[in-house]
User: Fold uroporphyrinogen-III C-methyltransferase from Hymenobacter cyanobacteriorum.
Amino acid sequence: MADSPLFLPRLTVVGAGPGDPDLLTLKGAKALAAADVVLYDALANDALLAHVRPGVPLIFVGKRSGFKAYTQEGINDLIVQQAYRHGHVVRLKGGDPFVFGRGREEMLYAEAHGLATDYVPGISSAVAAAGSVGIPATHRGLSEGFRVLTATTADEQLSTALLEAAQTPGVTTIILMGMSRLAEIAALFARYGGADVPAAIIQNGTLPTARVVAGTVADIATRASSAGLGAPAVIVLGDVVRLMKQSAAVDARGTELLPELLTYAKVA
Assistant:
């Protein structure tokens, strides 16, 4: 790295979207086509790699089946190494990299090591997964707004923001990376918001393999366990769950839903 490269070492962090490859942005596709090397995560659909020029190195840096290819520190170092070796590094991350995706963290590290950086937003699964089955983040008369939370803090403790969320059920709560703490989250909402708060879990949202379970915070953990749902999944809590599409409850993908939730709430 002491010698000046003949190209500009740079990093573009690209949001891969929620899963469906057709939901990649045009700018994201252009960035992939201009990449000299691509570092991609498990949540980035492999079909997106078709946008990359033949012969460009593709490096998997995600986690699959419990195997973690790189630590975050290792990814940071790899970005810098590959940029000085190849030029333009595209870091392809699921959803939107700036929504619990550590995208800016990687950019800051790259900038500190002399790389130019850019960011291409992606469609976040926080909204798209629920929306794909008819659950909006907000709806007039049902939700005053929405919040997007991660289930745990950096030290793996349950997020303190969940308590405030549980006490204000009139605001839709969308939780990412929360399946391992689902029972605790549901119990918290049942205690402070009421056992009848509607809840839904969307696994593999926007994909043909999507599965949905819905109920209330009193039984959602049991329903999810019985259906075998796991990560990656989005948890949605609030009255907007009542607006879920009828078709999402009767497809052939193992989806189940409390019938009483499939009634449209009367809105102003």
